[in-house]
Inverse folding.
């Protein structure tokens, strides 16, 4: 009973969330009825797919309780059962919602080009009792080029609602690019995506982004896995991989021309502009790396420089580089000092789902972890949290450490990622909260320079609060905090609060 109540509450809160966030209205609604005479026949429901459509999503509802009617579903493209654009799949009586697009489709359905014209929903009617009259409703959504990966909402309900810190890994590779692991007989083979997902579950992560190099073929595999992994949000990403740098694009499943230096894509700013049209989040990866034969384009050497206004994030921790000469922090701080608001995030860059901490030399999933403060465990909420800078990086992937940082002054409050206005002479109180960091100490960083904290920033106990006061000079600044272990090793990196900018 309690379980059913919990499910009901979950359904209600998901519905309330969808309403508050303006769930997409269907582009087409059709109603009809089947009755006894339709028993063991097939019926076609035609509908027109407009030009420019890139995705067709169907929701089919009927009452199968009252008359014990069963309705099976399939989909036919413009060619009917003939030709290449004809049969698009058959799901029988098991799926109420399904989608087809060029990149991905619900299992039972075939991904492929969406040709405009007359499509048909195929109904199979194995069981309709003689006196039955069963109404049905069909809702259809037509996706457009540039739709983010979480559209339409009906395909992507939040896995959880409620404002919280959600933890994830934003950088990993699978069989869809150069991810490799040991096969059953110990051969190195392309590593199937589900192993990456299972490894993330074992690390108790809330979300992961699959970022295979330049491709989006993993999107189709993720379509199959997400309903089963209903506590781990799967975010389609890709690592735009060029001769002059790598950058992750999160939240889009559409192809993107990555050929920086070509006629069509002369420079990184063109890539970033094209990415912006896909409504994803763009993040520059492992900027500080040598670039050469061993790892072509691994360092960030974009020329002319990318327009940083089109970049939302920078990977400040990649695998185990925190605190090393390859740390992404100096590159990030350069951008912050130049006036850009870019969120520092982390990613394991895992290439082997079977890698463990016990096997050094390969990055492990969830190491580092990026924690995002978001109002739900959903693609739009997590990516909005990243854009907004409500993020800290848990360098060791502890699973339980939290770093919160806020500021207040006369007439304003701010937390990580926010801007605060403070006139010259105004006192600003900064407050840091760190959990599960006993024995560690906090470090303040103001405009890229160390900001001494009282008592060496010592953090007392597993639930430590630390306040410090700062007087504004009325000029633009940014201020962030980090937590370091007794040996000085970085544990947590917080994102900045921006003052007067
Ligand atoms: Zn890379
Ligand atoms: Zn990578």
């Amino acid at each position: 009973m309690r379980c059913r109540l919990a499910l009901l509450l979950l359904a209600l809160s998901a519905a309330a969330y969808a309403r508050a966030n303006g769930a997409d209205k269907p582009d087409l609604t059709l109603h009809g009825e089947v009755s006894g005479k339709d028993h063991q026949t097939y019926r076609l429901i035609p509908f027109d797919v407009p030009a420019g459509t890139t995705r067709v999503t169907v929701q089919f509802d009927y009452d199968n309780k009252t008359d014990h009617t069963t309705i099976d579903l399939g989909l036919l493209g413009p060619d009917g059962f003939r030709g290449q654009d004809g049969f698009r799949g058959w799901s029988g009586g098991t799926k109420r919602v399904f989608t087809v697009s060029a990149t991905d489709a619900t299992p039972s359905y075939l991904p492929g080009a969406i040709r405009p014209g007359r499509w048909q929903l195929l109904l199979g009617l194995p069981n309709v009792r003689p006196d039955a009259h069963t109404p049905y409703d069909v809702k259809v959504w037509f996706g457009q080029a540039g739709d983010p990966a979480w559209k339409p909402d009906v395909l992507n309900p939040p896995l959880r609602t409620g404002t919280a810190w959600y933890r994830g890994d934003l950088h990993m590779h699978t069989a869809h690019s150069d991810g490799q692991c040991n096969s059953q007989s110990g051969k190195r083979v392309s590593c199937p995506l589900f192993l990456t997902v299972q490894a993330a579950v074992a690390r108790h992560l809330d979300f992961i982004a699959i970022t295979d190099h330049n491709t989006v073929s993993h999107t189709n595999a993720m379509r199959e896995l997400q309903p089963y992994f209903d506590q781990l949000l799967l975010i389609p990403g890709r690592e735009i991989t060029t001769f002059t740098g790598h950058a992750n694009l999160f939240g889009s499943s559409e192809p993107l021309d990555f050929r920086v230096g070509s006629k069509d894509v002369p420079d990184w700013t063109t890539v970033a502009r094209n990415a912006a049209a896909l409504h994803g989040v763009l993040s520059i990866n492992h900027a500080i790396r040598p670039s050469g034969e061993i790892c072509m384009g691994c360092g960030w050497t974009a020329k002319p420089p990318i327009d940083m206004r089109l970049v939302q994030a920078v990977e400040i921790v990649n695998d185990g580089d925190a605190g090393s000469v390859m740390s992404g922090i100096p590159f990030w701080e350069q951008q912050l000092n130049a006036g850009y608001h870019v969120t520092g995030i982390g990613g394991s860059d895992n290439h082997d789902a079977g890698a463990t901490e016990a096997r050094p030399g390969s990055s492990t999933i969830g190491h580092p972890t990026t924690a995002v403060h978001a109002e739900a465990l959903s693609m739009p909420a997590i990516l909005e949290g990243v854009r907004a800078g409500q993020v800290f990086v848990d360098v060791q992937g502890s699973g339980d450490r939290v770093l919160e940082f806020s500021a207040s002054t006369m007439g304003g409050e701010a937390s990580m990622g926010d801007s605060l206005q403070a006139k010259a002479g105004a006192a600003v109180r900064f407050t840091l909260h760190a959990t599960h960091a006993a024995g560690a100490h906090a470090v303040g960083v103001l405009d890229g320079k160390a900001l001494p904290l009282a008592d060496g920033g010592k953090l007392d106990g597993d639930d430590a609060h630390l306040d410090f006061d700062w007087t504004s000079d009325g000029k633009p600044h940014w201020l962030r905090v980090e937590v370091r272990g007794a040996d000085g090793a970085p544990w947590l990196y917080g994102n900045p609060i921006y003052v007067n900018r």
Q: What stands out?
A: The chain has two domains: 26-144, 153-399. The two ends are 53 Å apart (CA to CA).
